[in-house]
Amino acid sequence: MSNWIVPTETDLAGTLSQREIDAFRASPAASMDADPVRALQDQAAGQVRAACRSNGRVKMDASAVSSIPRSCLRAHCAIVAFDVLKRLPTPVGEDRRTAYRDALAFLEKVAAGAITPEGADDEDDTGLAHALPASAEPHVPPRLLD
User: Domain map of the chain by residue range?
Assistant: First the structure.
């Protein structure tokens, strides 16, 4: 399993309902793109990739321009969800706004090097992706040491 993926509409299922996606596709705001959801996913992937490039320690995946580290998928989906919902004629809920702000804050930390997502071919033996803090030292909360 690769550490980098091209997010799909299925990945959005935990963030957006099919009803919200369908409403967006039917809205006037979506009429200019062949697949408006894919277009927003590609834009969000560009944001994630820009943050990873700015980090300087992330080996980029050159195989697909819309691929992102698995550990950045949640931030990607929160950005896409907000971009979809703000184009609909209903207000965006505070929980979605918070998720969007958290996603942007996460990407700022990635860009600044405080968090370093896995590189394109940095798989461990489990095949799982890991977002690493700037220091490679493991962190154990003090209360767990009691």
Answer: 4-134
Distances (CA, A) of 33 to 27, 38, 104, 133: 12, 9, 25, 38
Alpha carbons 31 and 132: distance in angstroms, whole number? 40
Q: Does the pTM of the predicted model rise above 0.85?
A: no
Using CA of residue 119, residue 120, residue 122, residue 124, what is the dihedral sign?
positive
pLDDT per residue as tens, the chain (146 positions): 689 999 999 999 889 999 999 999 888 877 666 789 999 999 999 999 999 999 999 999 988 889 999 999 999 999 999 999 999 988 999 999 999 999 999 999 999 999 999 998 755 433 344 454 444 333 333 443 43
Amino acid found at 54: S
Q: Which two tokens stand for residue 99?
A: 């998720």
